[in-house]
Specification:
Layout (H helix, E strand, L loop, with lengths): L10 H12 L3 H8 L3 H8 L6 H10 L6 H6 L22 H17 L3 H18 L2 H12 L1
Helix pairs in contact: 2-4, 6-7, 6-8, 7-8
């Protein structure tokens, strides 16, 4: 992550970190959260937020409900993060992320003993990767998920 103006571990720092992971600008995050940049900046500075604003910001950052309050209590939100977005800010599909999401699902299904469903999900990931031309980039991950 680039430098953050906020103290490490603070809500502002985690917002910057997650925004960087998602590839969002401050303006894009504010738009996704349905709030002004000023409201977002106030939230990052630790000022009180309405419950509805917390939830919208958590959704925009793909954090689970309650993540902002957990961070305020000093928790690491790593376990409160949802999957990376499959849609980019411009609305197009990020094929690599979509395939990775399917691979994660296939791995989880296989670990749960649902081999047939895992195999079907893996085939779907492979078809999408071929269609989108990202197979070479993801070949090792596809092989690992099939093992």
């Amino acid at each position: 992550m680039g430098e953050s103006e906020y103290a490490e571990g603070s809500l502002g720092w985690w917002i910057d970190f997650r925004r960087s992971q998602l590839g969002l600008t401050l303006v894009e995050l504010a738009e996704r959260a349905g709030m002004s940049r000023e409201t977002l900046r106030n939230a990052a500075q630790g000022r009180r937020m309405r419950a509805a604003n917390k939830r919208r910001l958590e959704d925009a950052l793909q954090w689970q409900a309650g993540a902002i309050d957990a961070i305020a209590r000093g928790a690491d939100p790593a376990g409160l993060v949802g999957p990376a977005p499959i849609r980019r800010a411009d609305g197009s599909v990020d094929a690599v992320t979509a395939v990775r999401t399917l691979l994660d699902l296939a791995t989880s299904l296989r670990a749960a003993g649902d081999d047939a469903e895992a195999e079907e999900t893996l085939e779907m990931a492979t078809r999408l990767a071929r269609r989108q031309g990202v197979l070479a980039q993801l070949a090792d991950e596809i092989t690992a998920a099939g093992a």
